[in-house]
């Protein structure tokens, strides 16, 4: 029996192969070129007679694929010799626990956390189970609409590390550059970062970090694998209570195969690395990502508060463009100077629902904001084509014009 189509509404064709424009925050859309290459190799990888999904992770074909993936990603990142690439499981959520288990110098040791949104809050909560975690800076009072200046961070010089989230997916904030700890007079503290939602979207100052981790499911492939970049001094120093699956040292010694690795997800990281490298590498890709985000922010800022971005301009994310559908009668403090997140503007809930419904009719999917905040959010990861961004920009302008009296 034929299954019914899952399409609930008519769709305007924007992308080839009948694909919608998928603005999901993750798992996210991937480049069609990468999907087609994976499709071509799916049944019989390079003539070996097996799919990537079927081969032994101890066999020579998988080892060849892993070697290529690590080489491609290391080349893309300009990985220094002092750092090691690991492919782990459990997402960033597991890393919230793995980090203190590997980097605290004993039970009861302390580390500093910079809290700028949902995910850094969660990282702090998990780490607090293993030591005395301390908030070095936060922006909770203003509803996570800007970033605390590094010079105002109050760091403990004896902290095992200081952790920050480079891009807050839920709240739509992103550090414009790697925090310079010299501004906080704490150059000896090890810097660590959750880069799950902006990994490989711009060059990374790896030398400045002792640890970086990133779930692949936003910019670098499907869910299932977490890329970890660990410096030499982080390996082999885990607490005695650290589970084997959380140990960076054991994972490194086992070449990321302490247990059966997520073979297909690792393979896709390799294809994504190749895709970005062939298009100019991270320097070029950074400009591409910036241009896509700016296109939407320009529409929002020119809408005379019909659309409102609650995030201050110097903290806006290139990956997750957050906005409210406020309608023509909305009022808001200039540039969000006094904004308290989504509560700063009364969103027109009925108008937002209409916006989301009509967006889907145009083939623009997954634009609803996070359930905790409401509003709308357009995620612009590696796989988001320019055509998708232009289609959304055109729809937003048209919708605002047609509902100018709302």
UniProtKB/TrEMBL annotation:
Associated pathway: Amino-acid biosynthesis; L-serine biosynthesis; L-serine from 3-phospho-D-glycerate: step 2/3
Cellular compartments per GO CC: cytoplasm
Pfam family, one: Aminotran_5
A GO biological-process term: L-serine biosynthetic process
UniProt EC number: 2.6.1.52
GO molecular function: O-phospho-L-serine:2-oxoglutarate aminotransferase activity; pyridoxal phosphate binding
Domain Aminotransferase class V: 20-392
Cofactor(s) in the UniProt record: pyridoxal 5'-phosphate
Keywords assigned: Amino-acid biosynthesis, Aminotransferase, Pyridoxal phosphate, Serine biosynthesis, Transferase
UniProt xrefs under InterPro entries: Aminotrans_V_dom (IPR000192), Pser_aminoTfrase (IPR022278), PyrdxlP-dep_Trfase (IPR015424), PyrdxlP-dep_Trfase_major (IPR015421), PyrdxlP-dep_Trfase_small (IPR015422)
Catalytic activity as recorded in UniProt: 4-(phosphooxy)-L-threonine + 2-oxoglutarate = (R)-3-hydroxy-2-oxo-4-phosphooxybutanoate + L-glutamate; O-phospho-L-serine + 2-oxoglutarate = 3-phosphooxypyruvate + L-glutamate
PANTHER family in UniProt: PHOSPHOSERINE AMINOTRANSFERASE
NCBIfam families tied to this protein: PRK05355.1
Family: Belongs to the class-V pyridoxal-phosphate-dependent aminotransferase family. SerC subfamily.
Name under which the protein is recorded: phosphoserine transaminase
Lineage summary: Eukaryota, Sar, Alveolata, Apicomplexa, Conoidasida
């Amino acid at each position: 029996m034929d299954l019914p189509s899952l399409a609930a509404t008519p769709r305007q064709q924007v992308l080839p192969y009948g694909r919608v424009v998928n603005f999901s925050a993750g798992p996210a859309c991937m480049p069609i070129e990468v999907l087609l290459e994976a499709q071509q190799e799916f049944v019989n990888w390079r003539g070996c007679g097996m799919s990537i999904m079927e081969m032994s992770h101890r066999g020579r074909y998988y080892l060849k694929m892993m070697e290529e993936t690590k080489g491609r990603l290391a080349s893309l990142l300009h990985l220094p010799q002092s750092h090691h690439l690991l492919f782990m499981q459990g997402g960033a959520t597991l890393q919230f626990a793995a980090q203190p288990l590997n980097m605290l110098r004993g039970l009861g040791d302390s580390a500093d956390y910079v809290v700028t949104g949902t995910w850094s809050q969660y990282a702090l909560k998990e780490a607090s189970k293993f030591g005395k975690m301390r908030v070095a800076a936060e922006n909770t009072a203003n509803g996570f609409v800007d970033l605390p200046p590094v010079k105002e961070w109050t760091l403990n010089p004896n902290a095992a590390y200081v952790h920050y989230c480079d891009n807050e997916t839920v709240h739509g904030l992103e550090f414009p550059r790697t925090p310079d700890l010299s501004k906080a007079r704490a150059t000896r503290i090890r810097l660590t970062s959750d880069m799950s939602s902006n990994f490989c979207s711009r060059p990374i100052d790896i030398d400045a970090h002792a640890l970086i981790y990133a779930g692949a499911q936003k910019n670098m492939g499907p869910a299932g694998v977490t890329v970890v970049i660990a410096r030499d001094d982080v390996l082999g120093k885990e607490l005695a209570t650290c589970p084997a699956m959380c140990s960076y040292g054991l994972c490194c010694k086992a070449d990321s195969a302490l247990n059966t690795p997520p073979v297909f997800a690792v393979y896709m990281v390799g294809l994504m690395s190749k895709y970005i490298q062939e298009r100019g590498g991270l320097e070029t890709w950074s400009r591409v990502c910036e241009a896509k985000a700016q296109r939407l922010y320009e529409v929002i800022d020119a809408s005379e508060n019909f659309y409102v971005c609650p995030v201050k301009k110097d903290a806006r994310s290139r990956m997750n463009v957050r906005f409210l559908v406020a309608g023509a009668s909305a009022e808001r403090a200039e540039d969000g100077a006094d904004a308290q997140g989504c509560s700063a503007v009364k969103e027109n809930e009925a108008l937002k629902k209409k916006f989301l419904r009509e967006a889907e009719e145009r083939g623009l999917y997954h634009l609803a904001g996070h359930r905790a905040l409401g509003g709308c959010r357009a995620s612009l990861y590696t796989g988001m084509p320019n055509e998708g961004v232009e289609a959304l920009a055109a729809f937003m302008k048209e919708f605002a014009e047609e509902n100018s009296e709302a």
